[in-house]
Amino acid sequence: MGAQPEQELFLYDPSLLLKLDFYRSPAKFNPPITAVAPGEPWLKVRPLKTGDYRRGFLQSLSQLTNVGEISEAQFLNRFAEMRAKGDYYVTVIEDLRSNKIIGSATLVIERKFIHSCGIRAHLEDVVVDDTYRGKQLGKLIVVTVTLLAEVLGCYKMSLECKDKLIPFYRSIGYVDEKGNSNSMTLRYANQNRL
Ligand SMILES: CC(C)(COP(=O)(O)OP(=O)(O)OC[C@H]1O[C@@H](n2cnc3c(N)ncnc32)[C@H](O)[C@@H]1OP(=O)(O)O)[C@@H](O)C(=O)NCCC(=O)NCCS
Fold it and tell me: What does the pLDDT look like over 122-174, one tens digit per residue?
C-alpha cells in the first residue's frame, strides 16, 4: 500500500463559520454574500489549513507587508504554536479553481482580568489579492472575523489602519471614537528573541 497523504489540519473549528449571522452586520453587500455563500461556487471562506503554505498564503500576505523568506517547516511550526494557543483565528478565502489563497484576515483574542475576566478581539493582517479587489471580498473577510469574535464572546474588537481605509472600516461598523482612536507604535531595531 502506498503512503497515505497526510491529513491537513485546520487552525480552528470550521463549523464556527456556520454560526455567523450576516444580518447582524451593518455592512451592506450588493449582491448579498456571506461566509457560507460567498457569491461564486469557486470561492471558499474557511480557517487557515496546514496545506496553505503550498496554496500561496504567504505570497498573498506579501501584498500587505514584508513577509520574509519562510520555509514550510517554519510555517508549520508557527501554525502549530497558534493552534495550541487557541486564540488565533486566521481566516482565508480560497479560489478553488486555482487552489490559491486570495485573501485573509486574522482575529486574535486577548484574555483580560478586566471586564470580569473578559476577552477582546484584535483585527490583524487584512489583505485581498490585487486581481480580486473591488468585489466585496475585503468586506466579506472582515465581516466574517468580526462576527466570529462576537460568537466567541468578545466584548469588543479593534484595529489599526491607514487613514484612507477609515471609510472602509466605518462601513463595516467600526467607529473612530472621539478622543479614543489614537494608535502609537514603538518599533524595535533589534528583534532577537529569548
Ligand atoms: C483593503 C482591502 C483588503 C480591500 O479589499 P477589497 O476586496 O478591494 O474591498 P471590497 O471590494 O470589499 O471594498 C469594500 C468597500 O471599501 C472600499 N475600499 C476598498 N479598498 C479601499 C481603499 N484602499 N481605500 C478606500 N476605500 C476602499 C470600496 O470602495 C468598497 O466601498 P463600497 O462598499 O462603498 O463599494 C484591499 O484593498 C487590500 O488588500 N489592500 C492592501 C492591504 C491593506 O491595505 N490591508 C488593510 C490593512 S488595515
Answer: 999 999 999 999 999 999 999 999 999 999 999 999 999 999 999 999 999 99
Q: Which domain holds residue 30?
A: 14-170
- Count of domains in the chain? 1
The phi and psi torsions of 160 (rounded to 5 degrees) equal -115, 140
CA 133 to ligand 1 centroid distance, Å: 7
Q: How far is the CA of 53 from the centre of ligand 1 (A)?
A: 24
In a domain, 6, yes or no: no
